[in-house]
Here is the input.
Amino acid sequence: MNAHTERLVLQGGAGAIEALRDAPASGAPQGIAVLAHPHPLFGGSMHNKVVQTLARAFVQCGYVAVRFNFRGVGESAGVHDAGQGELADLLAVVRQVAPAGPIALAGFSFGAFVTSHALAALWDEREVRHAVLVGTAASRNAVAPVPAEAHARTLVVHGESDDTVPLAAVLDWARPQTLPVTVVPGVGHFFHGQLPLLKTLVVRHLASG
Here is the structure.
């Protein structure tokens, strides 16, 4: 993402996990944000533009941002595991890059689905300051409900014109929880042409405390 991006090799249940870490230019970090990418079988990786946008937003707000490749992607060992192994990968990354202290979780599409389960698993164990779910793959996966106490710390963003994950599917997931969804009018799944707006929405959420 920039000249100060640090390459990491972490360890997961399937072997090596390839990751990138970006830190704020100065000052003590607010915490560590772990970011999850879209579906590995459809070209998803930590280099996805939405994931990079999320990383920039977190770094701007004082977080260390860690992106990683799920098993079977890039230099990460293993093969795709339909979400189960990917959740284990995400939790392994959290344990290694943020063994203590506040964390944030964010994901895009399939990554948002995996992040929802990580949030549910970690909420009672760790201080999760923020969660960001973008293009949540609710029509394709069993997305976990957001813990009620985490609603105020969670931003759900979806494009009105998403033809990969229909907005209606996300609303059907959010409705029983009374979980707000921020809808960006006229935008598709990958936020083409609106990545600066997405970054602004995330920065605003993180700045809200």
Remarks:
- The radius of gyration is 15 Å.
- The chain has five helices and eight strands.
- Strands lie at 6-12, 15-22, 31-36, 63-68, 103-108, 128-134, 154-159, 182-184.
